[in-house]
Design brief:
The chain has about 260 residues and is mostly beta strands. About 0% of the residues lie in helices and about 50% in strands. The protein has strands spanning about 5-10, 15-20, 30-35, 40-45, 50-55, 60-70, 80-85, 100, 105-110, 115-125, 125-135, 140-145, 155-160, 160-165, 170-180, 185-200, 210, 220, 230, 255. The strands form 6 sheets. A 5-stranded mixed β-sheet has the order 8-10-15-12-13, with no helix packed on it. A 4-stranded antiparallel β-sheet has the order 1-6-3-4, with no helix packed on it. Strand 12 (about 140-145) and strand 13 form a beta hairpin. It starts with a strand and ends with a strand. The model has no long low-confidence stretch (mean pLDDT about 90).
């Protein structure tokens, strides 16, 4: 009664491990820890008779598994299996992110509970891009577009299939980050990038062109099929504002 078992696992940096515990007798409560025996790497606290934890070794050092019954008065036998399932497919940080090209598709996988996959996408100023994310696993993924600083979130999306549009104002790179919005979000995904072409104004509010309310018109154009132009301004309460739009010159140009 109250028995707790510890196991020592030889860990290799960046390798991902699957800890699987099964029992015919007791509901299980399983944890994985780093080399200090305190820092959690993953857990399965569902209290079922088949527990699985996926976790990544932070360094070449021992790792630990703690196995106990969900209820302190429960006793019984169980089986343990630890499998090395390979290295993490993509970096977790922007500083070590893999750079990908536009107009291509990349496949990845959320391989453990706290996994984050980050990719770097080179971009040109004034060019519109679309980025489509598709998830084929379990749980709820979070897909983010980060600015060149690797910190500021330009857009955040949750769902199994989303398409983000962006038009950078400065040439350089943006970052694409995939993570789990809910616990144990695991499984494969694809990211497909496409260059849409020159664009005078952004397609989404996050990148809106700032304007100042004025009696003068602003010349804008729809640069491609499906183009959307978003402009924004700082409103002052309790002022009332009006907005008008009219076609100029020919199809696609307006003010």
């Amino acid at each position: 009664e109250g028995d707790v078992d510890w196991f020592r696992i030889r860990g290799t940096a960046r390798h991902i491990y699957e800890l699987r515990v099964t029992s015919a007798d007791v509901d299980l409560y399983v944890d994985a820890y780093a080399s200090d025996g305190v820092s959690s790497l993953g857990a399965d606290h569902r209290g079922t008779r088949s527990a699985t934890v996926w976790f990544r070794a932070p360094s070449d050092a021992p790792l630990y598994a703690r196995i106990q019954a969900l209820r302190a008065n429960a006793i019984g036998a169980y089986q343990v299996q630890v499998t090395d399932i390979g290295v993490d497919d993509f970096a977790d940080t922007t500083t070590t992110a893999l750079s990908i090209a536009t107009d291509m598709s990349v496949s990845g996988e959320l391989q453990f509970d706290s996994d984050r996959d980050v990719l770097r996408l080179p971009v040109q100023a004034g060019i519109a891009y679309s980025v489509t994310f598709e998830f084929f696993g379990v749980g709820t993924p979070l897909f983010e577009l980060l600015a060149a600083d690797g910190v500021t979130a330009i857009q955040k999306h949750s769902g199994t299939r989303v398409t983000a549009l962006t038009r950078p104002l400065i040439a350089g790179a943006i970052f694409l980050r995939v993570s789990g919005l809910t616990t144990n979000t695991l499984g494969p995904f694809t990211i497909t990038t496409a260059t849409l072409g020159p664009d005078d104004h952004a397609d989404v509010p996050a990148d809106a062109t700032p304007v100042v309310p004025s009696a003068s018109s602003i010349a804008v154009s729809l640069d491609r099929v499906g183009d959307v132009d978003v402009l924004g301004f700082d409103a002052v309460a309790p002022n009332i504002y009006s907005f008008s739009c009219q076609t100029m010159i020919g199809p696609g140009s307006y003010s």
